[in-house]
User: What shape does this take?
Amino acid sequence: MLKLARYLKYFKKEVTIGPFFKLLEAVFELIVPLVMASIVDIGIKNRDSAYVVQRGGIIVLLGLMGLIFAYICQYSAAKASQGFGTMVRNDLYAHINSLSHAELDKLGTNSLITILTNDINQMQLAVAMLIRLVVRVPFLIIGAIIMSMILDLKLSLIFLIVAPLISLVLFLVMKLSVPFYRVRQKMLDKVSRITRENLSGARVIRAFSKQESEIERFNEANDQVADVAINVGKISAFLNPASFTILNIAILAILWFGGDRVYTGSLTQGEVIAFVNYMTQISLALVVFANLVVIFTKASASATRINKVFETRSSITEGDGCIEKTLVGEEDLPIISVDNVSFAYPGSDEYALENINFNIGEGETIGIIGGTGSGKTTLINLLPRFYDVDKGQIRLKGKPIQEYSFDELRRLFGIVPQRAVLFSGSISDNLRFSNEDASLEEIEKAIEMAQAKDFVDKLPYGYDTQINQGGRNLSGGQRQRITIARALVRNPRILILDDSFSALDYATDSRLRQAIYENFQESTVILISQRANTIKNADQIIVLDDGKIVGIGKHDKLYESCSIYREICDSQLSQGGRP
Assistant: This one.
């Protein structure tokens, strides 16, 4: 938690003012028992109603002042805690976006969502309690003990015995409960993961009538969270009875020994009542302290998870080279060179790609084909440095891609991912995601090239039609065409289409490839497809099998020399796979 305390320096005023006014409130609260003692010993004893009313007015005034001070503290705590949470959340989100795909895969989407929401909320609560109660509670306890010692030193020994006993109880409860809170956070991650899978895969679940089994899976995970919470509850349940038993025994001791001292004249009746009030204040303060222990225990577990993300560093470091000078200065070199590249996903012992070698010339159309799991998507993820290679080198116009900043490198690419991903907002908003300065004419041209004009024109609001989260109000083919248009509107130097025609019929596929050929002749186009017909006219075709290149060349040459390519063609194309 101390590592995150650095954010409190932006709220020095609130962190100072809040506890100060809460301290004043506690001072007034400690004065109240003395006023009550004077009412009993003087006002009631002498039946002086005027004195009772006067002292009662002082108690009311102390209460009103305490209310004002508490309000100031509450406002300061709210401002500091919410500001703290906002800053941590912003910085954490920015840090997450600086991580490579390898770190994101390791941390997990569900865990990150839980950390950004639940864990930071827990830290906000801890900051609020830090300002409101962390100073007040110990001050009340210590202040009550000191005031009792001023009243009667011998009788105050009861307080000095009670405080260590209750502290021991709190320590034991905290020590036993902390591990459970850490386990509970992991359980919440699991619940978050199952929830996310069920909501995003609702159509699949219903298609296979798996609602009952998924409900059972969710209930099982939820029950595990409940079991942990129950175990913590069992431990925490011991806290209040143990604390109040000790305190009630202490009050009995005060009444017993205090009565004896009243009888001998060492104490007044009002002072005994003040002793009981101070013990009650200690009891209430310790109940609050017990809740603080729970809050800060949870916050400690949350802080550990937040710091773990902050301490995670991207395995990919960006350079600072200028891409534009490189592209202009070396026209004769291939735009992309892949030299003896091997790559394995983090945590895997086997290479997903091994000994990959090929060159891509400026303005060429490259086709990549292969069976499922052959490494096609993995290969194109290496080009914009979503992952770094384990062996070999990828060069851009002869210079390693590690020399360039991520922004400069990735601005060269227009990528259509295998899975169509759209964002909530209008169609225009989604297309401007890749090029925020795109004009309406550029958007219309991209939509027309992507073969999406026919259905966009029929939408009630055209380009201003709102897309639901994930594009749920569009069909699969419509989502895919909008995704393609988003890449095209960028007018990229290198266009990558990762199996982006799978939801399109053959006629639309053909028209789209023709539109790309006519409008992107100067761009390098990389087509990844399962369809031989989609890539057969490419300038160069790369055939992958089990992470290795088994063939490279034009369609006719590969059909004769590569058995895997020939099998793919024979299974899809007529006339022996020939165009």
